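# nightly structure sweep
# worker-07 picked up a monomer target from the shared queue
# config: single-sequence mode, recycle default, output format = structure tokens
# input follows
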Amino acid sequence: MDRDNGLKGVGADYYRDLLRRIFEGRKVILATDVMQGAAGNVPALRDAGAQRPFLLAGNIGTGPLPTTDEAEQFSLELPPEPDLMSGIRRFETVLRDLPPDALAALDAYDPDREALVLGSFFTLDGVVAGRRVYGGRTQAWEALEDKTAIDDVLAKADIALAPSEVVFIAAAREAAKRVDLGDGTAWAGDARGGWWGGAAYFRWVRSADDAAEAEAFIGAACDRVRVMPFLEGIPCSIHGCVMGKDVIALRPCEMITLRKVGRDELLYAGAATYWDPPDADREAMREAARRVASTLRDLFDYRGFFTLDGVLTAAGFRPTEVNPRPGAGMAPMAASSDVNLMVLNKVMVEREPVDFRLPELERLVVEASDAKRGGRCFAIFGGKPTEQTVRIAKVADGFRRAADGEDADGAIALGPSVIGGFARYEPDASRLEPGGSLAPTAVEVFAFTDTEFGTRLGPLEAALEVR
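# output follows
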């Protein structure tokens, strides 16, 4: 039965039928650096009438996979990389020159080379082993990932911004003196070496030692840096979407971004929809996303979903970046609404001649994700842990293993990743009260994994809620 959440208008069945019009009878290759990350798209493609898809990945990852009856699978088993972004870039580089065994497997699956290739971050004109990338983004859209190039777009959208300066790395310390409001400064590098996310080239600079480390680390990969005040408050993200004259905005999501105690780095640890900002801030954030959507359409002929990321500070929401793609917060909203928003976004980017009914999609997803919360936190660490799932229970000072037969507050999955070990915490949503930040829970979970499994993440702190 379709979950329409009491809405007058379309429900999830409408979008399943829409996807069927595009994918029925088609062969699809899901290409991603971690196979487990693409597994959730297999049921949506099956429901859309696609043929059994082909999962092509750099590594398997941690977590459940489809059966071989549900999807053909090929892992390149790429060697470990030093960080998450290096793993993504390495995979996309290898895709341009796949080894013979991978090519043979693809040709056996799709001898006529008619399959569509769906990936996370590909450009629109991309080709994988002679097969067309479907729903990739343009080079101009991808360039919006550059953290030093987005202020003009945000200014044209008439959004309140924190002060910032974009300077060459050698001038960053002087810029920091001019913009520091008392909590130090945030430095974000440019995209000289390719786009990046997950706080990879971000540093929180509060001392001369921090500045020296940031200059060395960011300067090795970037020419310029965006310097702005460090913003205290909850890191958050709002998805906007544009298709023709229609623009919509979904609900804000928390970006679980933890502070490494005594260090200038942050740990990006996932996204969730449990947190609720004050109602007035929520609507202001959604209106900002709509304005950015219109601006992206007018300047770049943009279509599909994007994220407007920032911090809810004591003075209100202050954006820090725009990501021209669906973000991590999309997953819990898609699960709540029964609409595969990731695949739907590909269809929007391709400008397929179908009626997306965006205003009704907005109502469906927002009401569903308000009613049913979700999200998870994760961390990547060194080592090669044994793959396992451990149920844990909350206690006064953190977490412990749940006893057999005891109700658990959630479960931790451990296993391999592209750069070592991987720990993912999935809370039991029924045991969490909507409204609060998930970040303090993440801090306690990772203290538990450090003690129990030697993840060596070190002491962490959550952002402060100041609004």
